[in-house]
Amino acid sequence: MISFVSRRLLATMAVLLVASFVVYQLTANSGDPLEDLRTSRDPQSVAKMATLTEKLDLDTPTFFRYFKWIGNAAGCVIGQCNLGISVSRGDEPVASALGSAMQSTLSLVLLATVLSILLGVAIGMTTALRQYSGYDYTVTFAAFIFYSLPIFWVAVLLKEFGAIRFNEFLGDPHIPWWVALTIGLVFGLVLSAIVGGRLITRLKTAGVALVLVTVTLVLLDITQWFANPSIGIVGVALLGAGVGAIMLFVTSNLTKRTMQFSIGATILAVVALWYPFQFLWFYLNTGWTILIVAVILAAIGVAAGFLLGGDDRTEAMRLSAVTGAIATVPLVLDQMFMRWGDYTQLIPLRSGVISTIGANTPTLANNSDTWLRMLDSSTHLVLPTLALMIISIAGYTRYTRATLLEVLNQDYVRTARAKGLPETTVIMRHAFRNTLIPIATIVAFDFGAVIGGAIITERVFAWQGMGALFNQGLHAVDVNLVMGVFLVTGVAAVIANILADLAYSALDPRIRVTEK
Amino acid sequence: MPRKKMSAPRTEELALSELTIEQRQTEGLSLSTVVRRRFFQHRAAVTSVIVLIAVVLLAFTSVGTILGGTGKLAADTETAQIVLDGTRIAGWWPFDWYHNYPITSPGGVPSWEHPFGQDTLGKDIFARVMRGIQQSLTVVSLIGVLATTLGVVIGSISGYFRGWLDSLLMRTTDVIIIIPGLVLGAVLGRTVGGNALSLGILLGLVSWPGLARLVRGEFLALREREFVDAARVAGASPRRIIFSHILPNSIGVIVVNATLLMSAAILTETALSFLGFGITAPDISLGQIISQYNEAFKTRPWLFWWPGFFIVVIALCINFIGDGLRDAFDPRQRRMPKATSLTRQFRELTGGGN
Fold first, then answer.
1. At what angle do helices B163-178 and B209-222 cross, to 10 degrees?
2. B179 in contact with A at a CB cutoff of 8 Å?
3. SS3 string of B74-108?
4. Are A383 and A428 members of one domain?
5. Is the pLDDT of residue B8 over 80?
6. Are B58 and B130 contacting, i.e. CB atoms less than 8 angstroms apart?
7. Backbone dihedral region of A369: left (phi > 0), alpha (psi from -120 to 50 degrees) or beta?
């Protein structure tokens, strides 16, 4: 395996070198960095041109300049990065520009990618299981539309309807009863289509969903929840129970008593610890607290699994630990929503809660309250994340649907059904796990591509990430900047490629990486 | 899926029902007939073909087009008027895309005279959108034709001959694939400047790697089959084996992926133009229109809705056609008959006594 990885690494590094040469030449010849100065009437423009030429070494032909650049860039391997300076960013070293841009890109794209994978796979599976139903057709059609949407168009629409109109709604939150009823009806219809089966079951599901959603919305409206949203201990309990139920369902353990007890105990512990944790959140006001809490809750999960797991002790410990760790999310959300009232007072009056520009409110960037800053970032993240998600969810949905359909036609699924396993077990154990193999490779590729940033989304939402750097560099013929971005994306793609291969062989024992 | 068309006599139907469904569908028919029939059963795909043809006709007949020249706008130094480079063929639409007209309705709101509205200068948006469609479709077709040809040729050569030629071609493919598409397009688009023809040709020259890899995979599998051996023993030249024996067998993969390539191409082109790297003002493309009127969404939303609408329509049509072709070519993706129709067939077979 080591020989496989090193061989692949060597081959792709050679490819990367050639590609970087091509990009360097293309960028350097795509325009004239001195163009602005040549046409300007500034009496000092000649002197400025001379200094710029000196700085960028423009007198050397681009062919040789590349080798100078690559020589300096090779220092990155031994930890001394010199990627040159970026003229268009006021002589900032490219390496430092890349550092801050990477951070902002990752915060933007990681969340969007993770969420779209989870949602896309879930939706894709439900459509495959209800193949050729009205639900399947609707989702397939919607996926096609989303797939055909230009992201810059979606982003501008989101700005208008997701931010400006939604902020107006938040300014005076009131949901008329008929809107609540319509939303309930839509939920009920969608859910009944997913559930499928006999008409009476579907009607029951639709009815329950309709009543639940409508009543919740009306209750939230009466209690003025939208004016001052909070989660509180009740919200944490509900969300925690939801996480537990999903964990049980995904691992097809819904009917196992031991699993129910062990995961239920973990969730109870989370709710019980809600009050004591308030002190922890308050006195340890840093991002690391999240990790600490997650570890504590995971440990409680392990203990619950150990004590209540019975025959399935190992699996119960593992599942409860994961559930506990995930249950940290509602707790953190709770902290963020507690600052909602303060936050609406602190932000500039005109901008509204859901922001359309940038990664944070400048006046709050150095606030000492971590949770307030997180809330601020979240309100800035909502729209670009949605824009990115809409399009990638469509792709994942289609891919998962096709893969699951293919797996469901395999002999081992028929065998599993023939020996009388419950349908949930067949789907979640036998079919779903095999569906994940091809999806895992796609995910690896996607994460590789993600580092390059979302050039268009970043531009529409004025986000200072990798895509914005690339855009800026290309417009100003700033070769060093473009090459810096390319280097990072290229290396990320190479690593993702190798990881995809390794993941494939780890998940599917029929494939061996040593075979070429 | 119940086939209404096959209203054959009942005895024949009973005889046919002995066969499996796919046998019945393909019995004694050539590949092209089977594919055509299956494609025409795909309602969304057929609708898409019609819509796409309608859009193309509308775009090219309404405002006419330009033959020869670069199609760029330039100021004539003698008459001080704006002229186009090339011969313009007029269409039935009374306005063109480069003149400013008097604003007929307040704020340029869509009216009978200007159904898509006008911008602040009084330009007719319908004419601009139509011209944008022409430009975008030109780029997409060029990319489609060039990338497919290159992908097929390179893929088949490296898959058939293997050896050092294969390594060389595949490493070249790797080099192009590793450069993100938008990056390559942006650098190239900036280098050549905003012209639909040159942009289409350049993007076509770099969009083939994905298809080449797929074709190579097909060739690697097919070249080991008996019919290829038979042809080789009979003394067929490599060229003949590639083009008459292997290529027709991989036509499904090629056609489907060429369509998908084109649906991606329209989004790439509009995105590039939106960023200002593709087709740039004063020339027009759908992405460029949206980019130009980006800030006007609050005041003049129609400047924004129409070009976006046509991008979505074109991309959607191409995607659906691709889906229809995939279903038609790939028997595994065939539509399963619905449970109701299966039950009916079963009842017919058992004489309805169940």
1. 150
2. yes
3. EECCCCCCEEECCEEECCCCCCCCCCCCCCCCHHH
4. yes
5. no
6. yes
7. beta
Residue A81 dihedral angles phi and psi, to the nearest 5°: -75, 130
- A166-A466-A389-A508 Cα dihedral, nearest 10 degrees: -160
A148 and chain B in contact, CB less than 8 A: yes
How many CA atoms within 13 Å lie on the side-chain side of B146? Answer: 18
Query: Among A154, A147, A152, A157, which Cα is nearest to A120's?
Result: A147
Is A18 an 8 Å CB contact of chain B? yes
In angstroms, the CA A331 to CA A237 distance is 10
Which chain B residue shows the shortest CA-CA distance from A491? B178
Q: What is the pTM assigned to this prediction?
A: 0.81
Separation of alpha carbons A379 and A385, rounded Å? 10
Q: In this structure, are A18 and A130 located in the same domain?
A: no
CA dihedral sign of residues A105, A110, A111, A112: positive
Residues A241 and A174 occupy one common structural domain: yes
Chain B touched by A48 (CB under 8 Å): no
Record: contact B174-A23, CB cut-off 8 A: no
**Number of Cβ within a 10 Å radius of residue A149:** 21
B124-329: CATH superfamily = MetI-like (1.10.3720.10)
Contact A12 B174 (CB under 8 A): yes
To test the contact with chain B by mutation, choose from A29, A153, A410, A455 the residue with the greatest count of B C-beta atoms within 10 A, namely: A153
**Spatial CA neighbour of A48 closest among A87, A92, A94:** A87
pLDDT of A509 over the 70 cut: yes
Q: How many residues are listed for chain A in this entry?
A: 516
* Contact residues, A window 442-481, toward B, CB-based 8 Å cutoff: 449, 452, 455-456, 459, 470-471, 474-475
Contact status of A410 with chain B (Cβ, < 8 Å): no
Nearest chain B residue (CA) to A474:
B187
Residue A109: name the closest of A481, A391, A300 by CA. A391
Judge if ipTM > 0.85: no
DSSP summary character for residue B337: P
- Lookup: tokens for A14: 């050679």
Contact of B187 with chain A, judged by CB distance below 8 Å, is answered with yes
> Could you read off the pLDDT of B217-259 as tens digits, one per residue?
989 888 888 999 999 999 999 999 998 889 888 888 888 889 8
HSE-CB of A322 using CA atoms within 13 angstroms: 14
- Of the pLDDT bands very low, low, confident and very high (cuts 50, 70, 90), residue A170 is confident
Q: Find residues 366-405 of chain A whose CB sits inside 8 Å of chain B.
A: 402
Q: Between residues A420 and B4, which one has the greater pLDDT?
A: A420
Mean pLDDT, to the nearest integer, of A335-347? 82
Euclidean distance between CA atoms B183 and B61, whole angstroms:
35
**Shared domain check, A61 and A47:** yes
For residue A248, the SS3 value is: helix
Interface with B, mutate which of A15, A129, A477 (most B CBs under 10 A): A15
Q: Name chain B contacts of A148, Cβ cutoff 8 Å.
A: 263, 267, 311-312, 315-316, 319
Task: Say if A515 falls within a structural domain.
Answer: no
Residue A395's pLDDT band (cuts 50, 70, 90): confident
Number of domains observed in the structure of chain A: 2
Q: Are A453 and A465 in contact (CB under 8 A)?
A: yes
Q: What is the mean pLDDT of chain A?
A: 84
Q: Looking at the complex, report in whole angstroms how far the Cα of residue A243 sits from the nearest Cα belonging to chain B.
A: 35
| Three-class DSSP category at B65 | strand
Q: Are residues A272 and A124 in the same domain?
A: yes
